[in-house]
Amino acid sequence: MFDFIKNLLGPATDYNALMAKGAVIVDVRTAGEYANGHIKGSKNIPLDGINGHVADLKKIGKPVITVCRSGARSGMAKGILATAGIEVYNGGPWNSLMQKIN
What CATH code would you report for 15-100? Predict the structure, then answer.
């Protein structure tokens, strides 16, 4: 049963490998939320302004990992960026991703 669920969800994302490839972490929370804590080196681009940064993120040419408070807004940002042809992963809650990356 576990293998069935694992296959359904696909392989787990190796965030450390993405970071080694130069991935950019984009925190889509508000500036106030970001100021209260964030992953060092992440870029704060609130979800409501993500469309205005698509070209800049595309120019970087590196994978993008989106994060927020719960994973919902980062999931929406992932959809926007993926539609634009960017290699993007939803990292979910920023504090959870911070614990996964070394």
Answer: 3.40.250.10
